[in-house]
TrEMBL record:
The lineage of its organism: Bacteria, Pseudomonadati, Myxococcota, Myxococcia, Myxococcales. Residues 1-123 form the GST C-terminal domain. Signal peptide: none annotated. It holds the Pfam family GST_N_3. InterPro entries: Glutathione-S-Trfase_C-like (IPR010987), Glutathione-S-Trfase_C_sf (IPR036282), Glutathione_S-Trfase_N (IPR004045), Thioredoxin-like_sf (IPR036249). It comes from the Bacteria. It comes from Pyxidicoccus parkwayensis. Gene3D superfamilies: 1.20.1050.10, Glutaredoxin (3.40.30.10). PROSITE patterns: GST_CTER, GST_NTER. This is Glutathione S-transferase N-terminal domain-containing protein. Residues 1-84 form the GST N-terminal domain.
Amino acid sequence: MRLHSYYRSTAAYRVRIALHWKGLPFETLSVKAVREGQPDAVQAYLAMNPTGLVPTLVDGDAPTFADVCLVPQVYNARRFGFSLERFPTVRRIAEHCESLAAFEHARPEVQPDASEYDPSAEF
């Protein structure tokens, strides 16, 4: 695992605590070094995390807890007609996750009570 981090970020601090607590090995990559480095490094980080915020935890191609949180947000963005064109990485991650059985079985529209759903009555 690679944790793109900044030492003073409280969000990154919480992730570091959790990783150490669980005994998970990880490599820390300083985002400060990226920002002070070459413009190409900044663009590469923004391609991975379009918000440019820290932390970013990368664990190969396997879905992470962040992906589990991301997919419902993407679902709602689509549901309410929000364009995700500016967020190709978010779209790519969501599409990959949605192709997995666990995500497929959890989709709102395949749940037993989804037959009660009437989109015209929503707003």
